[in-house]
Amino acid sequence: MATLHDQKDEPIIEIRGLRNSFGEQVVHENLDLTVCRGEILGVVGGSGAGKSVLLRSIIGLQHPDRGEVEVLGENMIDREEDEAHNVRRRWGVLFQNGALFSTLTVAENVQVPIREYFPHIKPPLLDEIASYKIAMSGLDPEVGAKYPSELSGGMRKRASLARALALDPELLFLDEPTAGLDPIGAAAFDEQIKELRDKLGFTVFLITHDLDTLHAICDRVAVIADKKVIAVGTIEELLELDHPWIQEYFNGPRGRSVKKGHDMAVTTGGGR
Ligand SMILES: Nc1ncnc2c1ncn2[C@@H]1O[C@H](COP(=O)(O)OP(=O)(O)OP(=O)(O)O)[C@@H](O)[C@H]1O
Q1: Whose CA is nearest to atom 25 of ligand 1?
Q2: End-to-end CA distance of the chain, in Å?
């Protein structure tokens, strides 16, 4: 039987030698990355470093020039559509803009993936599952009947989270989930993700620019620069490297103030 430690080391995403380009522009060259079961992996890098393109390569929305991408033990490159369809069922994605259908209520949005994969589920059960996912995402039950345009930015993120959780994913992809949220809303959202991960045991691939999020919930952080993942580790491990981007990012004025805030939170026993 696998021990907890073994499970933690079990690769859920394995990327080897990835190359992506758009015309003359090479975005990734020889990029390697392993994401392990149960971890929250933060992915950081400058604007345009290729974080979203990496996410799209993993979930099959971007066909790489070269390389291997294995997700949940399945090779994702050049798969037959029906096989890819089956793997997609095992993950949930929260896209940067939320990507909710504006003509559907929140509950109907949450039901979309369930209807796609389980067309025989009857409406009463669909409603029940949607209500459950909406509650899990920290929204009040009445939000299910609202349309995305009637929600605040934070509520829209949570509604998108409810939809990403619809099929009980083993793997959750989050693209800048706290972008545009106020600090209190962002901290609450981070906490929700961590609580759900602790309770449900899924793995999280989280693209973010938010230093607070990295400090608060990420087990490890992968840094993308120079077209590849230049380092993966805890923030403490990354800080030992003398790469200029890493030092500037974590030790620049914003990085220092986040760290100071966390040290204070630890000494006063509060904080996120
Ligand atoms: N469909 C596309 N066609 C052409 N170029 C693209 C396409 N998608 C992404 N790119 C380019 O690839 C590079 C990486 O884009 P990507 O969106 O992955 O960056 P990012 O690291 O997510 O940036 P940000 O933090 O600003 O969101 C950018 O230079 C972008 O212009």
Answers
A1: 47
A2: 34
